[in-house]
Amino acid sequence: MKKYLLPSIRLTGVLMVLLCIIYPLFIAAIAKMAPGGGDGVTVSYKGKVVGYENLGQAFKNDRYFQPRPSAVGYNAAGSGASNKGPTNPDYLKSVQAAIDTFVVHNPGINKADIPAELVTASGSGLDPDISPEGAKIQVKRVAALRHISEQDLMKLVDEHTEKPLLGLFGPSKVNVLKLNIALDEMKNN
Amino acid sequence: MNTEIIGIVVTYCITILLAIPLGRYIAKVFAGEKVWTDFLKPFERLIYRLSGIDPTEEMSWKGHMKAMLTISSLWLIYAFFALIFQDKLPLNPDHNPGQTPDLAFNTAISFLVNCNVQDYSGESGVTYFTQLFVLMFLHFVSAASAIAAMMVVYKGMKEKSVTTLGNFWNYFVKSITRFLLPGAILVAVILVFNGTPASYKGKDTIITMQGDTTQVSRGPAAAMIAIKHLGTNGGGWFGANSAHPFECPNYLTYMLEMIAQVVIPIALIFALGFYIKNKKFAYVIFAVMTIGMFMFLIPTLQAEIKGNPAISHMGISPSNTAMEGKEVRFGVPATAYWSTVTTIISTGSANGAHDSYMPMTTAMQLMAMMVNCFYGGCGAGFLNYYIFIIIAVFISGLMVGRTPEFMGHKVEAKEMKIASIAALLHPFLILSFTALASYILVYHPDIHWAFQPKNWLGNPGYHGFSEMLYQNTSVAANNGSAMGGLTANNVFWNVTTGIILLFSRFIPIIGPVAIAGIMAQKKFIPESAGTLKTDTGTFGLMTWAVIIIIAALAFFPALALGPLAEFFSMK
Q: Which of A73, B3, B268, B350 is surrounded by the fewest CB atoms within 10 Å?
């Protein structure tokens, strides 16, 4: 063992310089050229930073499109999931309650159209997206509260629907923060 | 739905298409043949010179293992103290506290052995210094040392009759300089251009649209996330792992991370074929492993796409009812595919909350980790498979009444003893420690030093038992994924899983290396009409059967108590 100890110490030191200093600094340097400069891509409204493009945030007011439930209250300094099992009775009660609340806040919708993602918590607690169906089902409510035509809102949702990668891979989605900013801008015009 | 299925199929196909040339390249690197990355040779010589290493010095299998154990012990001690005193070390912009000794013990071992079970949360439990200088460092070196050990076994299979099997440092350093680091740079660069942070600035504070003041954790995360996948480690920067939108921002990065985590394990299998100049042997292994993967993948996809019947009954849209713990940008099928891949190989990174998946998925994840060799982790996956090959050779040899031989060397009692111990250790550790945890939970629910066992479980009933079984299986398989509902950051779980981790890493590495080393020393017996052929479909089937009998059936009673019972109780 003794024979290997000194080379082990020295090799560890050399690799640490390479892997823990040079490598991440090199990546950080390249990231300066990326959107957001490697510090995360922010979104601004009226000249102020209001969030990060990739991170969901809470919208409690019914005048906005609402994101998915979050197990951590959209705490971007402590991501997490609910970790509730599919047969847990308390969990199922909370899903039922979320459905009931949603129906109360969205009169006139067809319950069978509610996509499950609007009543289930995401894996990170920071999911920035909902599905196009999840946005469209909220159009009626938002349109009524803001006195905008449903047609215009549907168009807005369509404009903000991100298609699958190359039109081929993965699901379609709508970024809730960007949609809501567009919604506020629409009113201002 | 269709684009989601196409997404998975294409991701898998790209992985295979990349793995074949990568395998050929890796074989050439280790055989010392000419490759295009030879311009790195002066750089490697510099590393050797600074470290005082002679990379041409031949080592016996024992020498290899002594080198690996020496440097591993060193890393363990270093990691343990760095984590305890991280609050006093530099690069702590978020002012996170030091870890408790039991947590540091668990974390240090967990990353040392390529498991990466995380009883802390990335945003608050570690600092930038420990993320980079301890955890990410161990991401690289734990993968490289397992690949080095695997190379010893490959060399033992290739040579006719030798006592030495190359140089450990040579295999180890080349694993880093020739593919782990270049690969990590490539992956990290793609990640930063898709929104993953590479920032040393610490937390940001913003005011959201509705006026909440929120803090946003960031960090030089991209570098770590790249190697966490390439090295099949899985320990992420953020608490939610790859479900976190910074850690895996979109579907492109999903495909990237998915390919990155499984491409080296598959390439190493192809590399074996090129290295020992018997491609058919490698293709048979690849076929067995692929069949194994689909055995777990198909029920998983079925269960997740079908969704949670209890939620379907509530009268909402019946599609995608299994969205609890999943992210919209990945969708259900892609998350399900990830969960299979991350458990068959030993990555354990997660892009969803494993605790909220369907019971059948949990059963498949558990079985994937119990088998632990369908593709498997970097290096370690093949080492586990090698044990089953030895057992299969022995059993088939006895069945046809011939002396068991493998690669021109006799398999005798000593090798079989080592193989049996290595194969049986896995079920022994998982089942006995789960039994111990269950016993304490039931008979000592109030002991204060273990966070009151009655509060351990995040979910009642069968699912709660699955959480404990999962934790022990995950650490024994050096996987590192977890059912997050289990409260694992306490003395009991930190210490017991730490012990399982140590045993289940080093014995399954030393065992195969010892077998390969002992066999390589034996007299070479040229192939004759009486030799049992190991590069045939029949032998592949035999190995598959041995794996199913030893690795899967041993666990059946435990699976029946947990996920299977929950499955049958679902209405």
A: A73
